[in-house]
Amino acid sequence: MSKAEGDLALIGLAVMGQNLILNMNDHKFKIVAFNRTVSKVDQFLAKEAKGTNIIGAHSMEEMVSLLKKPRRVMLLVKAGQAVDDFIAKLVPLLEKGDIIIDGGNSEYRDTVRRCKELEAQGFLYVGSGVSGGEDGARYGPSLMPGGSPQAWHHIKDIFQSISAKVGTEPCCDWVGPQGAGHFVKMVHNGIEYGDMQLICEAYHVMKDALGMSQEEIAEVFEEWNKGELDSFLIEITRDILKFKNEDGTHLLEQIRDTAGQKGTGKWTAIAALEYGVPVTLIGEAVFARCLSALKDERVSASKQISGPSVTKYAGDKKALIKDLQQALYASKIVSYAQGFMLMREAAKDMGWDLNYGGIALMWRGGCIIRSVFLGNIKTAFDKNPKLSNLLLDDFFRSEIQKCQVTWRRVVCAAVQLGVPTPAFSTALAFFDGYRSERLPANLLQAQRDYFGAHTYELLSEPGKFIHTNWTGHGGDVSSSTYQV
Question: Would residue 185 show up in a list of annotated catalytic residues for this protein?
Answer without folding.
Answer: yes
